[in-house]
Amino acid sequence: MAAPGCSGDAAADADCDMQSAQKSLPNAPPPQSQPVDQPAPQTKRILGLIPNFRAVSTDAKLPPQTVKDKFMETTQDSFDYSSIVTPALLAAYSMGTDATPEFRQGAAGYARYFWHAAVDQTSENYMVEFIVPVITHEDTRYYTLGRGGFLKRAGYALSRSVITRSDDDREVFNISEVVGSGAAAGLSSLYYPTRERSFANTGSQWGLDIGVDAASFVAREFWPDINHWLFHGAKPSAVIQHQ
What we know:
The structure is a single chain. By secondary structure, this protein is mainly α. It is built from 7 helices and 9 strands, in the order αββββαααββαββααβ. It has one domain (63-235). It has helices at 10-24, 67-79, 85-96, 106-136, 150-159, 175-188, 199-231, and strands at 34-35, 45-46, 50-51, 55-56, 138-139, 142-143, 163-166, 171-173, 239-240. It has a 3-stranded antiparallel β-sheet with strand order 5-7-8. A two-stranded antiparallel ribbon has the order 1-9. A two-stranded antiparallel ribbon has the order 2-3. It is globular, with a radius of gyration of 29 Å.
């Protein structure tokens, strides 16, 4: 039977039926969204062994830190099971270089190096991440750059040891890191052997604290990439819409 509106001619009716069928088809679906290479997100720990609670994923927008936020994140950094890794490594290095001869060698010597390194880490955490930033109103989180070449990102990460954000989202001098690390180094003289209590040793500890933190910033910057490439972590989820 010819479609409504078609003539009685067979050839004309066939062409008319085809046009009617085409008109009755649904519209073609819109182009699908395609994924874009967006930086992978941060995780709470690096390799499951190193605390990474203060790292913020690229482009993430977070509210200002409260005093409670700073305290809780500092406590996580200091007492999470993963917090023993850095002191353990530093203790092994210090014992290997006989940094404090009074501690001696062997298991007992390593235990002395370890608990001193653990107290060093904890006191520095609370100075740098809680006490000083609460006073100076600084944001203690690490905001991942996530874009650009290696040198750009590494330079950005290293600069975070002297530049940070304020609670009102301005870039400011990182008083928390510089002053907090110095204060923690000064406190360490209270529990190290008398021979170690000198300005030179305090300055050396101060520099070590800042250096370790700077290295940790570089590790945090590139950890999402390493996690994604090697361990198939969370994939980028952002999409671009085709108009």
